[in-house]
């Protein structure tokens, strides 16, 4: 369809949706619609229920995503189930080669995928490139499957008798993925699941489905057989569907506490393997002996980067001893952050995903003020020239926040940093240990002994020492703990291989 006929739909939107979306009339404007991906076909949904996808920098409707019908969801699972026998019996070298080709396709289409992330979620180009870089690393890790999926043997446990173990795929798996990393999280689930021999159904966020649909195009070009990966859309209905469907044997989830608890309880009740990565409240400890320049820069990027919309974001800074004297400088530096559309050059971070998300964050900021916190920097009234209707929120700093305040107990998910002051390292450790979340934390110090003490006593799954966001590379597992994770085996690394496979033990006896 010619660009001139897409009245009000941006040129970028057209480029992103090339061959993935079809046109559907909506009053006098042609609005692109997101297709399903079932059995290697992009299919127009027959639903009567559609969800508007908006550019968060302008709130203009850029596409529509369907609420998948029951028959469409059944078709996706049926396709995955039908593909499983042949796919699971394919050689590990065959599956490895598809991962190599998918990696190459991702590199070739990097700019297109980046544009999708900028348009639909409001990421800066730099953030989008970083996410795509992570996707490439994930695929490179999957290309090592020939060494990752090895078993064990022990010969001669008795005369002429050996014992051995090997790993086999499970069956049909499903992934329920969030809006904040619409390429990285889906690819981390379906690539690891399928390279282990499973088939997969992905339910992406209805806020930004474009990235997943581009990835499905690349799977086609990489030679992925029909039914190995499938995509359905919607809000709660497809989540309940995959939790209940008897042919889905394992569920991977990344998202909010409420939705993750629902998936874990419902999926586990139905006998499925479940891994759920939930919310977070991540603390950064600032010791007086830390490098001030690097620490303040790290706090700003770790707290406000990606508009705070990531489970790894630093949301609380605990200043120990004399380091509290750095707070005024932290405030002044934070004021220099450039907040605008991610498509604009030099943007430090972009908008929140929706007006509802912005209102929620603003309400939590006000709850802190009402409870006695001091608002050192207020980003609620920011105006972005040229994007007056966007969901923008500037850097915000709440000072002297206490653990009983709602702005502390609740994951804010916005560019808001809460600050605390304590006298000693032990006081700070006590705050971190008593927080119900355990996703990630950081400490800034020049002392190895201090860093070691904190890393051993903090009771948090991932620790950064002079690293604001200790997001491990994919060869290591994503080890959030306590209230940040439900399940047993985690995403990425060796635990992902264990999650997506089952172990078989064989004892063999061959008399000479």
From TrEMBL:
Tell me where in this chain the Aldehyde dehydrogenase domain is found: 43-506
Query: What Gene Ontology cellular-component terms does the record carry?
Result: mitochondrion
Q: Which CDD domains match?
A: ALDH_F6_MMSDH
List the EC numbers from the record.
Answer: 1.2.1.27
Q: Which Pfam families match?
A: Aldedh
Kindly state which reaction or reactions the protein catalyses. Answer: 3-oxopropanoate + NAD(+) + CoA + H2O = hydrogencarbonate + acetyl-CoA + NADH + H(+); 2-methyl-3-oxopropanoate + NAD(+) + CoA + H2O = propanoyl-CoA + hydrogencarbonate + NADH + H(+)
Q: Name one GO molecular function term.
A: methylmalonate-semialdehyde dehydrogenase (acylating, NAD) activity
Q: Which residue positions does the secretion signal occupy?
A: 1-15
Question: Which top EC class applies here?
Answer: oxidoreductase
User: Which family does this protein fall into?
Assistant: Belongs to the aldehyde dehydrogenase family.
> PANTHER family, per this entry?
MALONATE-SEMIALDEHYDE DEHYDROGENASE, METHYLMALONATE-SEMIALDEHYDE DEHYDROGENASE [ACYLATING], MITOCHONDRIAL
Name of the featured protein: methylmalonate-semialdehyde dehydrogenase (CoA acylating)
């Amino acid at each position: 369809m010619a660009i001139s006929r897409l009245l009000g739909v941006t040129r970028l939107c057209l480029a992103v949706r090339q061959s993935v979306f079809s046109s559907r009339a909506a009053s006098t404007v042609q609005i692109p619609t997101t297709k399903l991906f079932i059995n290697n076909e992009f299919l127009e949904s027959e639903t009567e229920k559609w969800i508007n996808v908006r550019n968060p920098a302008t709130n203009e409707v850029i596409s529509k995503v369907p609420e998948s019908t029951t028959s469409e969801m059944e078709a996706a699972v049926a396709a995955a189930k039908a593909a499983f026998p042949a796919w699971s019996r394919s050689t590990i070298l065959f599956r490895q080669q598809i991962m190599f080709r998918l990696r190459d396709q991702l590199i070739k289409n990097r700019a297109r995928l980046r544009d999708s992330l900028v348009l639909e979620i409001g990421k800066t180009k730099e953030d989008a490139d970083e996410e795509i870089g992570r996707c490439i690393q994930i695929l490179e890790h999957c290309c090592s499957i020939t060494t990752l999926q090895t078993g064990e043997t022990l010969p001669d446990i008795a005369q002429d008798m050996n014992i051995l173990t090997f790993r086999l795929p499970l069956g049909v798996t499903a992934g329920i993925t969030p809006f904040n990393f619409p390429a990285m999280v889906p690819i981390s689930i379906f690539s690891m699941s399928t390279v282990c021999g499973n088939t997969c159904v992905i339910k992406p966020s209805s806020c930004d489905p474009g990235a997943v649909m581009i990835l499905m195009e690349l799977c086609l070009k990489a030679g992925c057989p029909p039914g190995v990966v499938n995509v359905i859309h919607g809000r709660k209905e497809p989540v309940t569907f995959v939790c209940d469907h008897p042919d889905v044997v394992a569920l991977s989830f990344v998202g909010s506490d409420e939705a993750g608890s629902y998936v874990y309880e419902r999926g586990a009740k139905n006998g499925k393997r479940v891994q759920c990565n939930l919310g977070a409240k991540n603390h950064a400890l600032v010791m007086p002996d830390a490098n001030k320049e690097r620490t303040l820069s790290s706090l700003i990027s770790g707290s406000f980067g990606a508009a705070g919309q990531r489970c790894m974001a630093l949301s609380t800074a605990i200043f120990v001893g004399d380091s509290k004297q750095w707070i005024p400088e932290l405030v002044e530096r934070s004021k220099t952050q450039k907040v605008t559309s991610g498509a604009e050059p030099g943007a430090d971070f972009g908008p929140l995903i929706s007006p509802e998300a912005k209102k929620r964050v603003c309400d939590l900021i006000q709850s802190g003020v009402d409870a006695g916190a001091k608002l050192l920097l207020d980003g609620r009234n920011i105006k972005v020239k040229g994007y007056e209707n966007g969901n923008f929120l500037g850097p915000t700093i709440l000072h002297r926040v206490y653990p009983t305040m709602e702005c502390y107990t609740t994951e804010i998910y916005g560019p808001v940093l809460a600050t605390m002051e304590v006298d000693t390292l032990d006081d700070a450790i006590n705050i971190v240990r008593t927080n119900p979340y355990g996703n990630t934390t950081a400490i800034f110090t020049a002392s190895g002994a201090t860093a070691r003490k904190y890393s051993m006593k903090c009771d948090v799954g991932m620790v950064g020492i002079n690293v604001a966001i200790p997001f491990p590379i994919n060869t290591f597992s994503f080890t959030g703990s306590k209230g940040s994770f439900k399940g047993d085996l985690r995403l990425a690394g060796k635990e992902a291989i264990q999650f997506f496979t089952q172990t078989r033990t064989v004892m063999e006896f061959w008399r000479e």
